[in-house]
User: Which sequence fits this backbone?
């Protein structure tokens, strides 16, 4: 920066070159247990720290849908001139009671300001690992007088996002 150099047989007197760096997410994917209240995501600034820069972040639905599985996250991360330290932000995870497959949503960084560019990893997939037990079907006992109708109480221990099929046979 700022030193004389030879370029195409001419002397360049060393114009100041500013490198604001590139901003990206630190990972392409992360998993979090549904019982965890938040997931912390990290953005990094690499390749330069000249000038104050910022980048926006936002979440988007996948198989996990806000507000039932996570809370929508949106905001701005800011770096001061000379600051190359990673910045973090959190997304709230909702611990529902339904048995369901693991679900995922995305978080992305966009719209860099202050001369920064976007790095290679601009989207991170967050997988929420379900922590609910599969439901159990119980059929209660019944007694009836001869000739009366039999009505059996059927109970499901907890909700499920999938179909529950029950086959009943008498003998």
Assistant:
């Amino acid at each position: 920066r700022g030193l004389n150099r030879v370029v195409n047989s001419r002397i360049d007197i060393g114009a100041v070159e500013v490198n604001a760096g590139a901003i990206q997410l630190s990972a392409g994917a992360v998993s979090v247990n549904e019982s965890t209240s938040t997931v912390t995501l990290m953005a990094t600034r690499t390749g330069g720290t000249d000038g104050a820069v910022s980048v926006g972040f936002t979440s988007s639905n996948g198989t996990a849908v806000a507000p039932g599985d996570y809370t929508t996250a949106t905001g701005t991360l800011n770096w001061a001139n000379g600051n190359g330290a990673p910045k973090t932000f959190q997304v709230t995870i909702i611990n529902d009671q339904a048995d369901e497959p693991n679900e995922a949503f995305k978080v992305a960084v966009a719209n860099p300001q202050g001369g920064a560019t976007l790095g290679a990893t601009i989207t991170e997939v967050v997988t929420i690992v379900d922590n609910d037990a599969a439901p159990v079907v119980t059929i209660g006992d019944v007694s009836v007088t001869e000739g009366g109708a039999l009505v059996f109480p059927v109970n499901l221990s907890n909700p499920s996002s999938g179909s529950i099929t029950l086959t009943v046979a008498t003998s």
Observations:
- The chain has no helices and 13 strands.
- The chain has a mean pLDDT of 90.
- The first strand starts at residue 5 and ends at 7.
- The radius of gyration is 28 Å.
